[in-house]
Design brief:
about 250 residues, alpha/beta, TIM Barrel, eight-stranded parallel β-barrel, globular
Length: about 250
C-alpha cells in the first residue's frame, strides 16, 4: 500500500519569519499523523533557514511516527544523524542560494565519498535513501554505494504538468512520467525501494501515485499551503485519499 511522508519544513519557515516559537513543527507532525501521514520528513539545512536542531531532537523524542531526515552529505549532518537515529536518512544536494532543492544528487561524480557515508549510517542502524533524478546511471550508482531507497525527483514532471495547463495526457507530461516509471522499474529490479517526491500537489499527484511499485511519496509545500485554509489534519487526509485512489485503480 502506498504511503505518504509529509514534509513539515515550511511550518518552521512560518515560525522563523518572526523568530518566535509558533507554529510548532512538533505539533504539525502530530496533526499530520492524525490525518493519516505514514511518516514525517524534515530537512535540517546547513544554513538552518527553517528546521532547527532542537526541532529534530524534539520530533525524535516526542512523536511516534517514522522520521525521514533529509540531509546534505556532510560530516556535520552525518554526526547529527548518527546521534538522532531516524528511521531513514535521505541524502540530498544542497546549495546556499537555492530556494528549494534543485535537481537530484549527483552520485556518479562522488561515489567513493557517498559510499563511505552510507556505510557509516548503516552501521548506526539507519536506512539510507538518495534523492536523484530519473536517470538510469544515477540509479545504478545508488545501488553501488549501498543505498536501500531511491527517491526520484518529480520536479520536471510537475513543471511540465503546470506548463501544459494541468493536462495529464500532454505528450510532454507523459514523457516526464515515463522517465519516472522507467527509473522506478530499474530501482526495483536492483532490489531497492522506489519512492518519489518534489513539487507534487493535489492536481498532479495521482499519475505518480498510480505508477507500479512506488512505495512512498514525500510531499510538503502543497500540504502546508492547503492547511492554511483547511487545517493540516484535513490537508493530509485529502492528499492521502487521492494517492490511495490512484494506487488502487
Amino acid at each position: 500500500m502506498i504511503e505518504l511522508g509529509v514534509n513539515i519544513d515550511h511550518v518552521a519557515t512560518l515560525r522563523q519569519a518572526r523568530r518566535t516559537y509558533e507554529p510548532d513543527p512538533v505539533w504539525a507532525a502530530v496533526e499530520a499523523h492524525l490525518g493519516g501521514a505514514d511518516g514525517i520528513t524534515v530537512h535540517l539545512r546547513e544554513d538552518r533557514r527553517h528546521i532547527q536542531d532542537h526541532d529534530v531532537r524534539r520530533l525524535r523524542d516526542q512523536t511516534q511516527i517514522k522520521l525521514n531526515f533529509e540531509m546534505g552529505a556532510t560530516e556535520e549532518m552525518v554526526a547529527i544523524a548518527v546521534e538522532l537515529k531516524p528511521e531513514m536518512a535521505m541524502l540530498v544536494p544542497e546549495g546556499r542560494q537555492e530556494v528549494t532543492t534543485e535537481g537530484g544528487l549527483d552520485i556518479v561524480s562522488q561515489e567513493s565519498r557517498l559510499r563511505d557515508i552510507v556505510a557509516r549510517l548503516a552501521d548506526a542502524g539507519i536506512m539510507t535513501s538518495v534523492f536523484i533524478d530519473a536517470d538510469l546511471p544515477q540509479v545504478e550508482a545508488a545501488n553501488r554505494i549501498g543505498a536501500r531507497v531511491c527517491e526520484i525527483h518529480t520536479g520536471p514532471y510537475a513543471a511540465a504538468f503546470h506548463e501544459k495547463g494541468r493536462d495529464a495526457r500532454s505528450p510532454a507530461v507523459l514523457a516526464e512520467l515515463d522517465k519516472i516509471r522507467r527509473a522506478g522499474a530499474a530501482i526495483v529490479d536492483l532490489g531497492m525501494r522506489f519512492n518519489a517526491g518534489h513539487a507534487l500537489n493535489y492536481f498532479n499527484v495521482q499519475p505518480v501515485a498510480a505508477l507500479p511499485e512506488v512505495r512512498e511519496l514525500h510531499i510538503g509545500h502543497a500540504i502546508v499551503s492547503r492547511s492554511v485554509f483547511v487545517g493540516l489534519r484535513e490537508a493530509v487526509r485529502e492528499m492521502k485519499r487521492l494517492m490511495r485512489e490512484a494506487a488502487t485503480q
